[in-house]
Specification:
By secondary structure, the protein is α+β, with helices and mostly antiparallel strands. Helices cover 20% and strands 36% of the residues. It is built from 5 helices and 18 strands. Pfam families: PhzC-PhzF.
């Protein structure tokens, strides 16, 4: 049978943070188009923001090196932080618990190699991701009003930037609160053709009003089948760079103010163009799909 886990990422509490599915049953199988189709079916059945799958690494496969993919209920995505954290958590806790391995390398289709290492013996992990590079962009007033209407934004807009690599539009507001409510038709926003293909999610962010955090955020990605994502690692590769430039500091603490909420420690390594994301994860459930793996042919 095919084993599946659900893990809450960027939290130490059950039912907080961002839930991810993790499937390790194909770690000795090479990836393929037919396997991708099957993975998408599993992710659709799981019906949570992302489900991660590891397969045999293409380069020097070992118990510390795998090929990693992420699927939402509707499509495969280029990068997913919380599901990467969840995958590393499961490997360290359930498969490599008696191994001296303390760093994992994940090969990916589009973002190169990702590394995850143990920070301590308390379960805290560090993700080593490529940096986002948001740049200032100007949007006309009509488009801004449409965005504000579909997200119920009443706050002042201070800044707008676009990260083309991660396909995320970042909007800095005067504050972030629960009055912001995304509509299902968010994908109908009429972005100009010049940037339309570079937008798969909208980040809303503001300064924190407490000393615990440097910034607050929320993230909306109905273009990937996720109206609001609880805690988003890939968005923090953009947020870390944005707020590092604004606040002139490299170590930052972010809070994603979704209904579940989650903490993300961020460190911007500008020289190497990387962002380190640190956090915890907790296993919620382990189960099985009633499918005999040896009956599948890929």
């Amino acid at each position: 049978m095919i084993t599946i886990y659900t893990v809450d990422s960027f939290t130490r509490e059950l039912f907080k943070g961002n839930p991810a599915g993790v499937c390790t049953s194909f770690q000795d199988v090479s990836s393929s188009t037919n396997l991708d189709i099957f993975f998408q079916k599993i992710a659709t059945e799981m019906n949570i923001s992302e489900t991660a799958f590891i397969t045999k690494a293409k380069n020097s496969p070992s118990n510390s090196r795998y090929f990693l993919q992420w699927f939402t209920p509707t499509n495969e995505v280029d990068l997913c932080g919380h599901a990467t954290l969840a995958t590393a958590h499961i490997l360290f806790e359930n498969i490599l618990q008696n191994s001296p391995v303390d760093e994992l390398v994940f090969e990916t289709k589009r973002v190169g190699e990702l590394k995850v290492k143990k920070c301590d013996n308390q379960g805290r992990l560090q993700l080593d991701f490529p940096m986002g590079d948001p740049q200032t962009i100007e949007l006309d007033n009509k488009l801004l009003e449409e965005i504000k209407s579909k997200l119920n934004i009443t706050q002042n807009i201070h800044d707008i930037q676009l990260c083309k690599r991660t396909k995320k539009l970042l909007i800095q507001l005067s504050s972030i609160d629960d009055t912001i409510k995304p509509q299902q038709n968010l994908t109908e926003i009429k972005f100009p053709e010049t940037i339309l293909s570079f937008i798969r999610g909208i980040i809303l962010t503001s300064n924190s009003t407490t000393t615990t955090y440097d910034f607050i955020s929320r993230y909306f990605a109905p273009w990937n089948g996720i109206l609001e994502d609880p805690v988003t690692g890939s968005a923090h590769t953009v947020l870390a760079v944005y707020w590092s430039r604004l606040l002139n500091k490299t170590l930052l603490f972010g809070y994603q103010k979704s209904a579940r909420g989650g903490d993300v420690e961020c460190e911007f390594d500008e020289k190497n163009q990387r962002v380190f994301l640190r956090g915890y994860a907790v296993t919620v459930m382990q189960g099985h799909f009633q499918i005999q793996q040896d009956t599948l042919h890929f």
